[in-house]
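Spend some time on the protein that follows and explain the fold to me:
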Amino acid sequence: MHPCRVLFICTGNSARSILSEATLNHLGKGRFEAFSAGSQPTGRVNPYAIEELKALGIATEGLSSKSWDRFTGAGAPPLDIVITVCDNAANETCPVLFGDFVKSHWGLPDPAAAQGAGAAIAAFRRAHTLILYRITALLKLPVETMGRDELKQALDHIGSITDEEADA
């Protein structure tokens, strides 16, 4: 069986989805293969995302802000799970991707919206802490043997985990 392929999507593909992709690839080696994309990619990875990943020893080589188009056409890797990470609470429009995969939403405030270096560093650390918590929960799931409905329910539950719960 191939690794479980997960695509993290947001609008700009410069921060949250990049953090998620790199973290799942780092922690889920062999079992998971993660990708990220955006509906309106910024064209560059946020430097604070790179700093946050490097601080935890997570590889950043090959990370790029890219369009979701590369996951919809011929030759695109087959996906098992697609997770949106935009922030509905901030009225961000989450991209919608159609296909034969399990979809879930793991909303996160956009750390790139923080103003000033100190606030940005803190915002990226907070966002990544929640991402780490959620990915750790994903890694505990027996995704290889779960049915689609059961997997969807488990992923949605993981996506409902808040900052406070992750910090506890």
Q: What stands out?
A: The radius of gyration is 15 Å.
